[in-house]
Amino acid sequence: MFSNQTSANADHRLPTMEQESEMCSVFSNQTDVDADHRRYTTKRALCLPSSVFRPLLVFLMTFAFSGWALADIALPPPRTEGGMGLFEALKKRASVSGSDLSAAEIKLEDLGTVLWAATGLNRGTKGWTVPMANGLPPYCRIYVAGNDGVWRYDWATHSLKELSKENIKGGIAAQSFVKRAFYVLILVADGEILATLNNEKDAAEFSQVAAGAMSQNIYLAAAALKLGTRYIHSIHREAIRSALKLPQGDEPISLMLLSK
Ligand SMILES: Cc1cc2nc3c(=O)[nH]c(=O)nc-3n(C[C@H](O)[C@H](O)[C@H](O)COP(=O)(O)O)c2cc1C
């Protein structure tokens, strides 16, 4: 039935090849006229010659797309040799005062070394620079807030996963000097990993112990790299939860400021 109808159409309704090419040229001329009209009116509306209009359009589109794309950052390998000795770093460990925080840029290599000291792999694929209970992987994550974005440290690949291009440093702590740190490290208890303990009290205590060990390593690495750091407990937990889009069960614990 359907094949019959198709052949009927072929015989009586569909145009011949000659008619078709004629119609195409009519339509394409019409389309050209429409497109020319649109180009003309758009250019007139913007009062721009095409030599300016096209590059401007390309620039705007490139800018718009690069703004949307979130890019991960592979960190340079952490420093594991040389530099200041442990005992000298212990002697130098101190909290930087709020008024000494500087806007000077911190090298990515230094940031990577501090993050590695806080929770990086130091033996194969299951040994970290801080002790973790019950054979669990790090249940305290680190987020990095900078001038132009927020990232999550991925210890498995020693890289930063970009979460946003916003500067959130201003709204996450009670003390206003916090936003002046070049980087603010945000320590967050990982609810999903800690839930495997099936014990809320242990989960809360273990995450606090982890944050303590991690922050002391950050203090020592910062001293060795001649960077300033400070532990901050007075934080705006709800603001952090929403800025980092934390899942239910994750708990912001504290901040560590990083400054030159
Ligand atoms: C548990 C804890 C909470 C802290 N909370 C804050 C804080 O909210 N704001 C702040 O400016 N410093 C905070 N600090 C930093 C201390 O004020 C600082 O370590 C103390 O003044 C001692 O100085 P030092 O680290 O140079 O030895 C905190 C330190 C600890 C250990």
Outline of the structure:
The protein is an alpha+beta fold. The chain has helices at 2-12, 17-46, 50-68, 86-92, 108-119, 191-195, 200-224, 237-244; strands at 73-74, 121-123, 127-128, 140-146, 149-154, 159-164, 183-189, 228-232, 251-259. The chain contains eight helices and nine strands.
Could you characterize the architecture of this molecule?
The protein is globular, with a radius of gyration of 29 Å. The longest helix has 30 residues, at 17-46. It has helices spanning 2-12, 17-46, 50-68, 86-92, 108-119, 191-195, 200-224, 237-244, and strands at residues 73-74, 121-123, 127-128, 140-146, 149-154, 159-164, 183-189, 228-232, 251-259. Helices cover 45% and strands 18% of the residues. The protein has two domains: 2-68, no CATH class; 73-259, NADH Oxidase, CATH 3.40.109. Residues 1-47 have low confidence and may be disordered. With 260 residues, the protein is α+β, with helices and mostly antiparallel strands. The strands form two sheets. A seven-stranded antiparallel beta sheet has the order 1-6-5-4-7-9-8, sandwiched between helices. Strand 2 and strand 3 (127-128) form a beta hairpin. The protein starts with a helix and ends with a strand. Helix 4 crosses helix 7 (200-224) and helix 5 (108-119) packs antiparallel against helix 7. The structure holds flavin mononucleotide. Flavin mononucleotide binds next to strand 8.
